[in-house]
């Protein structure tokens, strides 16, 4: 049957001994990100996540306006609540710098090196969720518990003259905002947010540097522990400043670390896994590419050249439209490059 009407050119390439699969596997093992991804498309896929994020921001705003539970504080309890009213060693505005902006700076550096928008988007989204969810839970517990801070006496009685009602409860005459903050001791917000942000960063770094590759490089563990050490020192400063009891700091650190772990595992494999260096989305794209290029039993398979070039970032010119790649995994065969004419109509009947 004669064939006419050219509809596309087929390129035939020889691949010796499965070299294509071996090279791809080597890229995965080395952590080389070769898939090109569209940041707008990735953000659109997770649009509902960003919408929920905005709702959490609104909830956090409402919680900050709410009054905590004013727990009964008797005169005999003031013995443990009469510590000095000191300034914060770590101001609250600084928490957002080292717990949010610092990790994002690390994410941007990794993106500059690997150009993987999947990794950048999921790292930022996971970090923001980690910090925001921790903040919402922390403030909700603060309001519900209403535990007095160790320096509550001086918040309630700035002149040092304590006053109690007939039931023995305190009658504060200090600044209303200062008294309100005095009932927000449990858990520690500085500590929980520090471990939420820096804990996420620690997990991210452990995956990127392959800290658990079973090669025994202690220096990698030092890098992983450094953010956690800083978060722990922030927690200790809260006790030293008499703004929190040690139980507040312990609970806050545990809360932030647990939430950061959950948020990280939503987007990234565990760092001790062989694929722990990249996000789940990247490996899903690899699986889709491998599925589209899976060879049949005869050792050859056809893939759309536009798909491969788009995924690997090697776009050709406009003449590549409609072109396919015919690949062979048989090391003993070599297919020559040729143009095949295809006719959609048979000659006259």
TrEMBL record:
Tell me the ranges covered by the Phosphatidic acid phosphatase type 2/haloperoxidase domain, including all copies: 125-264
Cite the entry's keywords alphabetically.
Hydrolase, Membrane, Transmembrane, Transmembrane helix
Coiled coil residues, start to end: none
Q: Name one GO biological process term.
A: phospholipid metabolic process
Q: Oxidoreductase: is it a keyword of this entry?
A: no
Q: What is this protein called?
A: Lipid phosphate phosphatase 2-like isoform X2
Q: Where in the cell is it found?
A: Membrane
UniProt-listed Pfam families: PAP2
The record's comment on protein family reads: Belongs to the PA-phosphatase related phosphoesterase family.
SUPFAM superfamilies in UniProt: Acid phosphatase/Vanadium-dependent haloperoxidase
N-terminal signal peptide: none
Principal location class: membrane
Which GO cellular component does the record give, naming just one? membrane
Give the matching InterPro entries: PAP-like, PAP2/HPO, PAP2/HPO_sf
Extract one GO molecular function annotation from the record: phosphatidate phosphatase activity
The keyword Transcription appears for this protein:
no
Q: How does it sit in the membrane?
A: Multi-pass membrane protein
The UniProt entry, under SMART domains, shows: acidPPc
- Matching CDD domains, A to Z? PAP2_containing_1_like (cd03390)
- Membrane-spanning residues where? 50-70, 90-112, 124-145, 189-206, 218-237, 249-267
């Amino acid at each position: 049957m004669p064939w006419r009407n050219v509809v596309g050119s087929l390129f035939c390439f020889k691949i010796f001994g499965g070299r294509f699969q071996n090279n791809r596997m080597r890229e995965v093992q080395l952590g080389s990100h070769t898939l090109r991804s569209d940041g707008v498309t990735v953000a659109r896929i997770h649009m509902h996540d960003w919408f929920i994020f905005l709702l959490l921001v609104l909830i956090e705003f409402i919680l900050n306006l709410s009054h905590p539970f004013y727990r009964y504080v008797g005169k005999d309890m003031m013995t443990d609540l009469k510590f000095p009213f000191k300034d914060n060693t770590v101001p609250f505005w600084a928490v957002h710098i080292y717990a949010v902006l610092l990790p994002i700076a690390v994410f941007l550096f990794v993106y500059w090196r690997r150009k993987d928008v999947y990794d950048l988007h999921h790292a930022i989204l996971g970090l923001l969720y980690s910090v925001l969810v921790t903040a919402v839970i922390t403030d909700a517990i603060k309001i519900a518990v209403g535990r007095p801070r160790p320096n509550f006496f001086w918040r309630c009685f700035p002149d040092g003259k304590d006053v109690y009602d007939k039931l023995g409860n305190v009658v504060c005459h200090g600044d209303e905002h200062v008294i309100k903050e005095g009932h927000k001791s449990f858990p520690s917000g500085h500590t929980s947010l520090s471990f939420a942000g820096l804990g996420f960063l620690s997990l991210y770094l452990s995956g990127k540097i392959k800290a658990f590759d079973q090669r025994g490089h202690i220096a990698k563990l030092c890098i992983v522990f450094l953010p956690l050490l800083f978060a722990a020192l922030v927690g200790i400063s809260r006790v030293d400043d008499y703004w929190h009891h040690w139980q507040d700091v312990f609970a806050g650190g545990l809360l932030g670390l647990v939430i950061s772990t959950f948020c990280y595992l939503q987007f990234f494999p565990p760092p001790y896994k062989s694929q722990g260096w990249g996000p789940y989305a990247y490996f899903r794209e690899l699986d889709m590419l491998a599925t589209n290029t899976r060879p049949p039993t005869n050792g050859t398979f056809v893939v759309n050249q536009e798909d491969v070039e788009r995924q690997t970032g090697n776009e050709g010119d406009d003449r590549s439209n409609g072109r396919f790649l015919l690949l062979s995994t048989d090391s003993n065969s070599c297919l020559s490059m040729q143009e095949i004419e295809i006719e959609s109509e048979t000659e006259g009947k």
